[in-house]
Amino acid sequence: MTENDTQTTEEIRVRVAPSPTGDPHVGTAYIGLINFIYARQRQGKFVLRIEDTDRARFVATSEQMIFEALHWLGLEWDEGPDVGGPYGPYRQSERTEIYREHADLLLANGTAYRCFCTAEELEAARKHQMAAKLPARYPGTCRHLAVAEVEAQLAAGKPYVIRMKVPAHGSTSFRDELRGAITFEHTNVDDQVLMKSDGYPTYHLANVVDDHLMRISDVIRAEEWISSTPKHVLLYQFFGWKAPRFWHMPLLRNQDKSKISKRKNPVSLVYYRQAGFLPEAMLNFLGLMGGGMPAEINNATEKFTLAEMVEHFDVKNIRPAGPVFDLTKLRWLNGEYLRALPPEGFYAALRSTVLSDAYLREIAALVQTRIETLGEFGNLTGFFFAENVAPPQDVFLPKKRTLEETLAFAAEQLTVLETTEWTHAALEIALKQLGDAQGWSVKENFMLLRAILTGSTMSPPLLESMIVFGKARTLDRVRRFVDAQKKAPPPKKA
RNA sequence: GGCGCCAUGGUGUAAUUGGUUAACACGUCGCCCUCUCAAGGCGAAGAGUUCGGGUUCGAUCCCCGAUGGCGCUACCA
């Protein structure tokens, strides 16, 4: 606990606010963990808010997966879309009226304005600015439109967005609880779009309005938000509200130090769960990122539970430098947890994950007509239980294809798989489309993917297998194949 | 390009917050144990704290600058 909290009676309320745009992200787990600890340490409330204002990237199954992933980790929330709470609804798509009203407030007090610029106009302006090596900013075309002009455009039914009117001069400062004061000159703060032309708010508006209405005391989020914090601070001012405290956690990184991404690292919590990582290990590992635990404990063991983190973790201790998410160390930690399990517990862990009844039943259905003795079960299904298969070149390389074009095509397959809905029909269409476009026969196309997924040219049906194996793990396998081949192309043998 | 953040071995973290031979863990390597592989035990290599200036009797730690990395620069979050 910090002195900060002992001298105030304010209720601590924090939130984690993921967007349902895909698989639940390991970064969400990290930020969720910190928020959870912070709330529990101060008898505060931990809120889950779903930020589904991007209808283009919205994925219907995502929200449920987020719930499940957070439950899996044991990061239980006090208020949220599913459990309700006094400040709901907790799904932004159900709060559009609220945002509309608040945008109108800003329009009325002159801190926001309607902008009728088209995407093309903005794009052109941006190009010019980039070419002239100027900062790419909204040119301000609609900032001072006459009332009559606005009325005319409105009457003509022209679509518009609402932008915040950032003061032309001066600067905005705020305190980041980990880094101290941070200042931005207004000349470097753009007139951010607050309401999109589809009637949905952008993150910035929705976030500020919700955090205020939901009485959030501490905004604990990822570092990538630092640059937009001045906009948020300005919005609090525009509304005449008190801003919360801001804590920006370091960004988890890939091995190459870039922001952690699915192209370079498994980031789906679904993957970690299906691949057989224990939630305790994941939480422990995440707790290691950035420090946070007191040195006495950290130096002594590096192994601790969620309860121990709630007991001893100090968010103020976190170092702002972005830690590399080191899969190797996570695996070691996971092994430690696995070894510490009593035999029955270990068996139970197996049976609830990689050897669950549900999983086995699905796999059985795929091989029943393909084996003659039950003893053959393993021959055909090994890949479902292996962490990885590494098909040799003579298995995956089609007869009439070069290594280069095959690897390029595999990379294309990966891209397609990443963006395709995980159903038989959708996968079949998407894959065949890709094959048609690139001049790959269905046989070559599917055979390559089969080799990558199963390590063999003989297997249960491909699409069904992919569905049973799961999107997260299938993507991981294909990505690994592509990466491995890219890194170390096998020497051409004469 | 602009703006911002950051900077201790390959990786994650320590360093009584100016005084240590810069510590621990992962990884790597070696040895032991052993039917194999792990696990376990023992040991080793690996940073003089990005670099350059200050301040100081003394800087990993404070200040300035440079460099580098990262983030943002969307009607994405």
Structure, described:
Helix 2 links the parallel strand 1 and strand 2 (45-48). The chain has 22 helices and 9 strands. It is globular. The longest helix has 17 residues, at 403-419. 48% of the residues lie in helices and 8% in strands. It has helices spanning 3-6, 26-41, 62-73, 96-108, 119-131, 147-155, 203-213, 229-239, 269-274, 279-288, 295-300, 306-312, 327-340, 343-352, 357-367, 377-385, 393-396, 403-419, 424-438, 442-454, 462-469, 471-487; strands at residues 13-16, 45-48, 112-115, 161-164, 171-176, 180-185, 193-195, 218-222, 245-249. The strands form 4 sheets. It has a 3-stranded antiparallel beta sheet. The chain has 494 residues and is mainly α. Helix 18 packs antiparallel against helix 19 and helix 18 (403-419) packs antiparallel against helix 22 (471-487). It starts with a helix and ends in a 7-residue tail after the last helix. The structure holds one RNA strand of 77 nucleotides.
User: What profile does the largest beta sheet have?
Assistant: 3 strands, antiparallel
Low-pLDDT regions: 1-6, 489-494
- Class derived from helix and strand content: mainly alpha
- How many runs of DSSP E, i.e. beta strands? 9
Shape: globular
Report the helical percentage: 40-55%
Mean pLDDT across every amino acid position: 93
Separation of termini? 67 Å
Whole-angstrom Rg: 26 Å
Strand content: 5-15%
Strand order of the largest sheet: 3-4-7
Number of helices: 22
Give the tags:
mainly alpha, 9 strands, globular, disordered N terminus, disordered C terminus, RNA-binding
